[in-house]
Amino acid sequence: MARVPVMQAVVDVLRSEGVDVTFGCPGAAILPLYAALEGSGIEHLIVRHEEGATHMADGWARTTGGVGVAIGTSGPAGTNMITGLYTAMADSIPILCITGQAVSSKLHQEAFQAVDIVDVAKPVTKWAVQVREAAQVPWTFREAFRTARSGRPGPVLIDLPLDVQQQEIEWDPALDAPLPVPRVAPHPPSVERALDMLLEADRPLLLAGGGVVLGDAHEQLRELAELLGVPVQTTLMGKGSFPEDHELFAGMTGIQTSQRYGNQSFLESDLVLALGARFGDRHTGDLDVYRGDRRFIHVDIEPTQIGKVFGPDLGVVSDTRLFLEALLAAVRARGAARDWSAWVARVGELKRTLTRPDDYDTVPIKAPRVYREINRIFPPETYFVTAIGLYQIWGGQFQTAHLPRHYQVCGQAGPLGWEIPAAIGVKSARPDAEVVAVVGDYSFQFLVEELAVAAQYDVPFVIIMLNNEYLGLIRQAEGDAFGVETEVDLHYDEHGTDNVRIMEAYGCSGRRVVEPGELADTIEWAREEAVATSRPVLVEVMVERQATTARGVRIDAMVEPEPVPHA
């Protein structure tokens, strides 16, 4: 068997695992890997900050379902990646971070940029490991990919001392292949019991969490809903797993990213079949209200997730797709059916009557009007990325999603600055797709330097900024908790930030919108400009200063007050 540089073996593994692009920043301690990547056919985007690399890998992974790869050198490169690892861990996204390290003989001597990144990363990864023997390297990478994909997906980190990277090993890529990833099938009696409970219910709901998206179970979800005639809700992470224009769509429940009809439909239900959902606190609100007298079936691929928030009436450990396939088979085998048409009609009535207005023509622009135009202009196959703040709440409430993996949000960790690098990752995965990043003015500036990456590598997408100059959600939270508003002030005067000029400084373009009537034309201009220039284009929308969530929903209330009338 031939001897080859060990980093060549790593590149062979990456290619065979489906990696066609990586994101990272070179440095002395990782240069052997970069040398092996040269001419490998794997594209590499050099980032401006290692956190940006992790978010790009995250966006790529959410889009493809594969394992995204981020690369950094030793020391601060690894510590800069921690936020991205946490984000991926919180949202069950499989990414691999590769870090260089000082030579093995110097690790105990506080060598330059030698940090124990493995111990630093362990709390926010499924597996973090340093490889000390060159012969172990390709097999460690194989196990890293399997670990990232197995069970509840998540991030992994491999740390490589420089001296290990510089060695040769015996290796033949033709004799190696990816390790199998087992899928967890449900125990048949639990499927039968779940069907019993469904048929006993008068007002059941199917609740699709992020596990439906990650498990590629959206087609089985729709098939079951239509076969039984049962309404479907989604969580924020499950948004897009069921088409929101479907007659059986029953909205979203929650204290922030929700619809009024979704909350009411949920409160009137008597059974919830939750598929791959975490029961996050912004979804459930007060657990006593959320649980009520209804029964719960909780299906999740991760055994320890069941019962973590509250004990369900039935817990089923299973891959969501395999569970839905088994449940469909059980329904057909029994010829089971119930007439839930009255319940479906009730949900439809709530959808028609418990709505929020979005047709405002006032100045300053109200955020719902922005999402009205987004829904009208962009086709269903558009990919959207968005992060944390009032605009995440508005997006959950007003933006419609039709396809899985096309509405991407950093839901649990909520790092500011996620959108621009994530959009680069999405566009790198789907070069022919239209990609839109919906951002806030504050989040925009956290990793704005990654615009240079998009400009350098011709990665076009549209950025729609909702700019209230205000830190609205922070002000609201502080007011609710302490009865005062935060002292943070982001005023935009001669000392403030001109976001359009920031775009221009990176060789990109943008326009500011202050009138509702300008929205549609400006968004259409941005779509055309992104294609023409092959670079990001900004639409900065000046929206009203607002220190409450859209339409007065309190963050500590499950049932919201009546909507605010048109201004």
TrEMBL record:
- Give any GO molecular function from the UniProt entry: magnesium ion binding
GO biological process annotation, one example: L-valine biosynthetic process
Which Pfam families does the record cross-reference, listed alphabetically? Answer: TPP_enzyme_C, TPP_enzyme_M, TPP_enzyme_N
SUPFAM superfamilies referenced in this protein's UniProt entry, alphabetically: DHS-like NAD/FAD-binding domain, Thiamin diphosphate-binding fold (THDP-binding)
EC assignment: the record states: 4.1.1.47
Record-annotated Thiamine pyrophosphate enzyme central domain positions = 191-327
Q: Does the keyword Ubl conjugation apply?
A: no
Q: Which reaction does it catalyse?
A: 2 pyruvate + H(+) = (2S)-2-acetolactate + CO2
The residue ranges of the Thiamine pyrophosphate enzyme TPP-binding domain are 388-541
**Cellular-component GO terms for this entry:** acetolactate synthase complex
Q: Domain Thiamine pyrophosphate enzyme N-terminal TPP-binding: where?
A: 6-118
Recite the UniProt keywords alphabetically. Answer: Lyase, Thiamine pyrophosphate
Question: Which family does the entry's similarity section mention?
Answer: Belongs to the TPP enzyme family.
Q: What is this protein called?
A: Tartronate-semialdehyde synthase
Q: What is the lineage of its organism?
A: Bacteria, Bacillati, Actinomycetota, Actinomycetes, Pseudonocardiales
